[in-house]
Structure formats: structure tokens, C-alpha cells
Design brief:
By secondary structure, this protein is of the alpha+beta class. It has helices at 3-6, 25-36, 88-96, 99-104, 112-123; strands at 41-42, 47-51, 59-65, 68-69, 80-85. Helix content is 34%, strand content 18%.
């Protein structure tokens, strides 16, 4: 997938996994409330955007803008960089370099130099 497809804002459905992961806005909200010792909640303008796609990250990286609402919301950070360990990036990467097909051919047909070049090409897009 092209990087632009990954920069689209995620749905604001709090129960849907973000960028094909199992992590939800609801989960992020709960964890941030605990970490920041706050009862403030994500507001109606909460947004997420995938960042760093195609730069060699093997996790899903995103920018979260929570639009905090509630007590002392103005004192809370306005933006977070979130790293979600996930196989999603590795699966996408594997498809781009045809890794599955090359592995199916067996070790006799696997040219490590060719595989390394195709991997490097994807990482430097």
C-alpha cells in the first residue's frame, strides 16, 4: 500500500482497532487516563494519523490528538506519538517484497542477495 493510504485519519469509533491493529481509541484513552492520573476523556474531535510508514518501523506508529474534555483538560498534552507493536507492518512489508512466494519456493530457490535488495527497496520508498 502506498504511504498516502496510511495517512488517512482513522475512524473515531472507539471500539474499532486502529490501522488494522487490535488497539482501540477506548484502550488508549483508558491507558492515558491511568498514566496521567486524570478523568478527562477524549473529545469529539479526537484524531489519529499513521506516521512513519515506509521508514523501516516494524510497528504501527501514529499521532494521537485526543481533544481532551473535562477537568484540567487544558493542562494535558495535546498530542502523542503512539507505538503499537503489531504484525500488520510486517505482513504489509512481506507482501510488498513477495516474501511469502519466495519462501514457498524453498531454500534451494531463495536468492538471499535478491531478497535483501527487494527488502531494501521497500524500506527506502
Amino acid at each position: 500500500m502506498a504511504p498516502s493510504e496510511h495517512n488517512e485519519p482513522a475512524t473515531t469509533d472507539s471500539t474499532a482497532g486502529l490501522f488494522n491493529t487490535s488497539v482501540t481509541l477506548e484502550c488508549l484513552e483508558r491507558k492515558l487516563q491511568e498514566a496521567l492520573d486524570t478523568s478527562a476523556t477524549f473529545g469529539p474531535k479526537v484524531s489519529t494519523e499513521q506516521i512513519g510508514y515506509g521508514l523501516g518501523f516494524m510497528s504501527v506508529m501514529l499521532r494521537l490528538k485526543p481533544d481532551w474534555q473535562g477537568e484540567k483538560a487544558e493542562e494535558l498534552p495535546k498530542s502523542f506519538a503512539v507505538k503499537i507493536p503489531s504484525t500488520v507492518t510486517m505482513e504489509s512489508f512481506s507482501k510488498q517484497v513477495n516474501g511469502e512466494e519466495k519462501l514457498k519456493e524453498g531454500s534451494a530457490g531463495l536468492n538471499m542477495e535478491e531478497l535483501a535488495k527487494s527488502c531494501a527497496g521497500v524500506l527506502h520508498q
